[in-house]
Amino acid sequence: MNFLFILTLKSILSSVIGSSFYKWFQTTTLGIWFQFKLDSFMEYLSDKYDIELAKKQSKFEADYPLIMKRIEKLEKLSHPDRQEAFNKVIDELEKKIDENKKL
């Protein structure tokens, strides 16, 4: 139990420190150069392997974050959790099985 707590704490601290470092690093000259190189490499990979959808999707998400949140909300509303309906069908089938066993 203690080991699990230490691993959880370590991962949380690592992510906070890493995020803080990157926010600072991206404003430095070396950070800007690194980000440019990373972006150009990712674009090279998307061109090489023809990953057009991923490029368009990520660019859209970066350019329009509020619209993306609205789209995700609408998708969530249009595809509701169907667990209750599934449980109802299962209950009806179990009742039919029990009725057939009685016969």
What can you see in these coordinates?
This protein starts with a helix and ends with a helix. The chain is elongated. It contains five helices and no strands. With about 100 residues, the chain is mostly helical. It has two domains: about 50 residues, no CATH class; about 40 residues. The longest helix is centred in the first third of the chain and has 24 residues.
Structural class: mainly alpha
* Percent helix: over 70%
Count the DSSP helices.
5
Low-confidence stretches: none
The largest β sheet comes out as:
none
Secondary-structure map with pairings?
Layout: H1 2-25, H2 29-48, H3 52-63, H4 65-78, H5 83-102
Keywords:
103 residues, single chain, 87% helix, mainly alpha
Kindly summarize this structure in a few lines.
The protein is an all-alpha fold and 103 residues long.
